[in-house]
Amino acid sequence: MLTSETSMDNDSVDQILNGSFDFHVYSSPDPYSVRRMDGLDTARLAYEVEMSGFVLNSDYYSTCICSLLTFKEFYNQHYLYHPNEPLICS
């Protein structure tokens, strides 16, 4: 059950995330750790809290293909994809 104090904390987190950009996001698949979200789930959450963006990161493989597929799938669904938008791969 959520209390008003918990709700207030969630509002504070939403305000902090609004407009933010996270340069270091780990997502699934990960060969050695269980991750709660994949790139597409992360994009949906970032969109919901109105983040400016994020960078997918992995210590074990290049995230270029994951980033590209997430970018194309998510932004095509929301009619925000523009072919000249920058896409940064690590």
Which tags fit this structure?
alpha+beta, 2 strands
Poorly predicted ranges: none
The number of distinct helices, counting runs of at least 4 residues, comes to: 3
> Over all CA atoms, what is the radius of gyration?
15 Å
| Rough outline | globular
Overall pLDDT = 77
Could you state the oligomeric state of the chains shown?
A: single chain
Strand content: 5-15%
How would you sum up the major sheet?
A: 2 strands, parallel
- Strand tally: 2
Category by helix and strand content:
alpha+beta
> How do the strands line up in the largest sheet?
1-2
Order of helices and strands: HEHEH
Q: What is the fold's blueprint, element by element?
A:
Blueprint: H1 4-17, E1 21-26, H2 39-48, E2 53-57, H3 64-77
Parallel strand pairs: 1-2
Helix pairs in contact: 2-3
Concise overview:
The protein has three helices and two strands. The protein has helices at 4-17, 39-48, 64-77, and strands at residues 21-26, 53-57.
Walk me through what this model shows:
This protein is α+β, with helices and mostly antiparallel strands and 90 residues long. It has 3 helices and 2 strands; from the N terminus they run αβαβα. The chain has helices at 4-17, 39-48, 64-77, and strands at 21-26, 53-57. The chain has a two-stranded parallel ribbon. The longest helix has 14 residues, at 4-17. The N and C termini lie far apart (40 Å). The relative contact order is 0.16. The mean pLDDT is 77.
